[in-house]
Amino acid sequence: QVELAESGGGLVQAGESLRLSCAASGGTLSNHYMAWFRQPPGKEREFVAAISWTFGSVYYGDFVKGRFTISRENAKTTVYLQMDSLKPEDTAVYYCGIAFSPIEYGLQYEQQYAYWGQGTQVTVSS
């Protein structure tokens, strides 16, 4: 059983930055991917970014356009999401997920992920 714990959300103004963290614990972590999704109010959950733990390869959702950066810290089994130039439309609950190889559906699909965190709220005011 893997547990994921997100932190770092909060209320910021448009144009500011936030860094989210997600720490993984428990289970056997190998050959896996960690990702961020978000769910804006009244909308479906959408893919933000993912990273391969073994190779460090990164993948981003189309809307990111260079504003967000995903990274990992192997020693802490933690993944980060640096969010810059935040916009009001970035307001959402941000979730961390973990997927294990083989990748059958694709990293941008929720069903690929075996475990999820509880989410952290990000609110961007205009």
Describe the structure.
The chain is mainly β and 126 residues long. 0% of the residues lie in helices and 51% in strands. The strands form two sheets. Strands 2, 4, 5, 6, 9, 10 and 11 form a seven-stranded mixed β-sheet that branches. Strand 5 and strand 6 form a beta hairpin. The N and C termini lie far apart (40 Å).
Return the average pLDDT rounded to an integer: 94
Over all CA atoms, what is the radius of gyration? Answer: 14 Å
Q: How much of the sequence is in beta strands?
A: over 45%
- Tell me the structural class: mainly beta
The count of strands amounts to: 11
**Total number of helices:** 0
The stretches of 5 or more residues where confidence is low (pLDDT under 50) are: none
- Give the termini separation: 40 Å
Helix share bin: under 10%
The gross shape turns out to be globular
Largest sheet: 7 strands, mixed
- Element string (H = helix, E = strand): EEEEEEEEEEE
Reconstruct the topology from this structure.
Layout (H helix, E strand, L loop, with lengths): L2 E5 L2 E4 L4 E8 L6 E8 L6 E7 L5 E3 L7 E6 L4 E6 L8 E9 L14 E2 L3 E6 L1
Structural key phrases:
126 residues; 51% strand; 4-stranded antiparallel β-sheet; mainly beta; 0% helix
